[in-house]
Amino acid sequence: MIFSSTELLSQIGAFIWPLFRISAIVIAMPLFGSRLLPSRLKIVLSLALTLAIAPHIPPIENIEMFSVNGGLVAAQQVFIGLAMGFALQLVFSVFVLGGQVIALTMGLGFSSLNDPISGVVVPTVSQFYTIFITLLFLAMNGHLIMIDVMAKSFVDLPVAQTGFGTEAIWKLLSWAKYIFSGAVLMALPAMASLLLVNIGFGVMTRAAPQLNIFAIGFPVIMAMGFVILMLSLPSTIPLFENLLDSSYELMRSMLGGR
Q1: 140-186 pLDDT, tens per residue?
Q2: Helices 236-255 & 142-156 angle (0-180, nearest 10)
Q3: What is d(CA 122, CA 124) in angstroms, rounded to the nearest whole number?
Q4: 134-248-30-113 Cα dihedral, nearest 10 degrees
Q5: CA neighbours within 13 Å on the CB side: how many for 42?
Q6: Could you give phi then psi for residue 109, rounded to 5 degrees?
Q7: By the 8 A CB rule, do 13 and 23 touch?
Q8: Is residue 217 over pLDDT 70?
Q9: Other CB atoms closer than 10 Å to residue 203's CB: what's the count?
Q10: What is the pTM of this model?
Q11: Contact (Cβ atoms closer than 8 angstroms) between residue 100 and residue 120
């Protein structure tokens, strides 16, 4: 069997162009893009997903690989993948920010750990929420849904010289506001409860000024914070589900699908 150079480049392009988008999604999305995973494992995962998805996507137009147009197409695919992964990353950022607010309220802002997913130093409470929603993400088969959205993205927005428009970029930037609203919704029970505790200590200080409020207030507030975390943890599950569904809908909307 003899292949011409044009046919050979066309066969290679049918694998290479999806690889750009898929590898960008793997690098940008939570869990798979974690710094805990070795780079070789990410490469193998990207290649495996491309081998599984590439045969089922619509035919790709013949694009000269080593040309200006080829570079533009590669950049477009990488940008699309990064945007999709970033949309999912925003969901996890909600709980990191909410955990920071709760930690500062209960006096644990000084207790910090290096977050292996984001690579930055975050309070211990944020790390706890990150581990919790990561396990919840896997239990809800969120990674499988993301792979399905990834595969359907080639149908909604095929590989071509055109990619995201300004409307899709604006949708992604506008959706970032949910980081703050979602974090407030998550941290509101703890903030309100600890505010009442602080008000109670303020009344005690006025009634009995001889009490050393700093000696007894700090451990009590911290203990109450842990109790409130335990009681409010089930309420984070529907919030995470809603945010996760909204992020998938955002991806489909950005890609022009339904």
Answers
A1: 888 888 888 888 888 888 887 676 777 888 888 888 777 888 888 88
A2: 10
A3: 7
A4: -60
A5: 19
A6: -65, -25
A7: no
A8: yes
A9: 10
A10: 0.80
A11: no
Q: How confident is the model at residue 222 (pLDDT cuts 50, 70, 90)?
A: confident
What is the rounded distance in angstroms from the CA atom of residue 13 to the CA atom of residue 111?
A: 50
Is residue 110 within 8 A of residue 212, CB to CB? The reply is: no
Number of H helices, E strands in the chain: 9, 2
Look up residue 234 and give its amino acid.
P
Residue 248 near residue 153 (C-beta atoms within 8 A):
no
Q: Which amino acid makes up residue 107?
A: G
> Look-up: residue for tokens 């607010």?
101
Concatenating the DSSP letter of every residue in 149-167 gives: HHHHHHHHS-SSS----HH
| Beta carbons within 10 angstroms of residue 91's beta carbon | 26
DSSP 211: S
In the numeric block, which tokens belong to residue 60? 């790709």
CA angle 228/234/236 to nearest 5° reads 90
